[in-house]
Amino acid sequence: MFVETLIIGNGFAGRTVAHGLTGPCLIVERGEKFNIFERRARFNAMEKADRHDALIRRSYESVHAFNMPEELPPDCASDYILVDGGCSNHWGGLSFRLSASMFDQTADGFRWPFDFQTLQPHYRNAERLLRISADPRDPDERNSLSEIQGTHRWHQALSPYFPQAYIGAQAHNLSVENLDGQGLCMGAGDCELCPMDAKTRSLHIRNNAQVMNEVLVDHLRFEDGKAVEAICQTPKGPLSIRFNRVVIAAHGVESLKLLWKSNLPPQTPKAFIGRYCQDHAVAELACHLPKAKIPFFQVNTAAQVVIPELSGELDGIEYTTLGLMTSASNAALAGALDLKKMNSWAVQESVEELAGTLSLYILLEIPPQWDVSLFYEGGAVRMDTDGYHGNKHRYDAVIAAIYAKMEALGVLPVREAEQAHYQNAFGTHHLVGMLNMSAGDNAVVDKDFRVKGTENVYVAGSSLFPRCGSRNPTVTVVALALMLANTLNERA
Predict the structure, then answer these.
(1) Could you say which of 14, 50, 238, 255 is the most buried, measured as most Cβ atoms within 10 Å of its Cβ?
(2) What is the end-to-end Cα distance of the chain in Å, rounded?
(3) Helical H segments across 230-346, by residue range
(4) Would 419 be classed as within a structural domain?
(5) Helix (H) or strand (E) holding 40
(6) Could you give the CA distance from residue 55 to residue 53 in angstroms, rounded to a whole number?
(7) Would you say residue 164 lies in a domain?
(8) CA 402 to each of CA 284, 298, 310, 326, 397: distance values in angstroms, whole numbers, following the listed order
């Protein structure tokens, strides 16, 4: 079998590259096709205490033995799934752009090879592909398909303390325009497994490419610096696919494994493959806004409030604070309750004041300098997290800074609700940066998305990021995939 362009992976990265290509291509995807509604029923039938534990991944178990994800260490909570469309089947839909400061680095080893403005038009196209809904107050001036309704109520409630706060953009379809098989959001709910299939998944990105499911690319075969053949496994036996060029767009861990198992040219910087894994760490906090009446649930989709006043960068760590738009946790409410008023029999007043209690979710950058690394040993992927554990104490200063910002704004911290998850583990299912395309000598991929030392091997996906910061990578993954498609079209 021969194809002009082979794309490995049918997730957001792979499907977007295929969407933007003008020539023929073939997508091979190791995962089988499945029914998203059947998986939702399977997930809901499970007994579980935590909706974000490994039961999520069990809902997407593949029927094939060769689709067993690598086992990550207990201190990394970013397990992943290997079915058609990949991890996009189970993301929440929060759709950030990276902050502009990520593109202003001075150290070449972690500096993007282009500036923020170069990426801007691709961001705008990506947001349309993802059917983004957004708050008109979003400072990134999103190219949204729909406006989130009810945002003015949140602005009004939070503005005495957080005048810059806005509802984070969501890839939740709120428009009947050109639905093309995607469902319509009916309001706040369980977006990870949306009952309406209204959250944008990679399979909603349309293209004319042929997709071959249940094809695992084990490795590439090179001849004199050029990849010429993909050696594959299928349920029916081995398969060989020859090509002129190949785009590796599999999950980050699986992309690494594919390259490690290939006879890469000597010019490829193998020593840097798997380095600088970033992901995110997490803390949960809470605060009380005196006299505020927070309008919980009162927008027309599930969302989070981005609070710039409680976000920033400290000691090389970017952090983003999200206000949760569901009722505050029991610990937050208990900590905010005014016991003096309760003991004075002002029960109604005490309870009504709880309406100003807000739970917070803090996304914490894992800087690439900490060098969390993956490597291949004994036929399996291993992870070195020593750099994380040696530096995680720095997050304590970030949390202290957030509390200080609260107090300066007249906001009351509810310290009893603090959960410093970062002390034990990290992971938000965003394994980023292990094939970085930095401007430095440590880059594995060059500015044209090509693996260094090769003639025709390109990479798409979040593993390219030299620095991600504290923001979710999906919109940037799609924007970069569009940028790669343009590059390939120019070289066709």
Answers:
(1) 14
(2) 20
(3) 252-260, 330-336, 339-343
(4) no
(5) helix 36-45
(6) 5
(7) no
(8) 12, 26, 6, 21, 9
Give me the pLDDT at residue 9, please: 97
DSSP 422: G
Q: The domain containing residue 97 runs over which residues?
A: 2-42+67-142+203-274+432-490
Go through the chain and tell me how many residues it has: 492
Q: Tell me if 230 sits within 8 A of 8, measured CB to CB.
A: yes
- Is residue 147 classed exposed, middle or buried when 0-12, 13-18 and 19+ CB atoms within 10 A define those classes? middle
Q: How far is CA 384 from CA 387, 389, 410, 469, in A?
A: 8, 10, 42, 20
Here the tokens at position 373 are 């690394």
305, 168 contact by CB (below 8 A): yes
Spell out a b/e string for 293-331, using b for 16 or more CB atoms within 10 Å of the CB, else e: ebbbeebbbbbbbbbebbbbeeeebbbbbbbbbebbbeb
Per-residue model confidence (pLDDT) at position 340 = 82
What total of structural domains would you count in the chain?
A: 1
The CATH number given to whatever domain includes residue 127 is 3.50.50.60
Q: What is the Cα 481 distance to its own chain's centre?
A: 15
Residue 54: the pLDDT is 56
**Distance separating alpha carbons of residues 252 and 429, to the nearest angstrom:** 11
Chain centroid to CA 46:
25
**Mean pLDDT in order along the chain per 10 residues (492 residues):** 97 97 96 87 70 65 90 90 85 93 90 96 97 96 93 97 97 83 82 84 91 98 97 97 98 95 97 96 97 92 95 98 92 87 82 92 98 93 97 99 99 97 93 96 98 98 97 97 98 83
Q: Rounded distance, CA 425 to CA 117, Å?
A: 35
Asked whether residue 219 is domain-assigned, the answer is yes
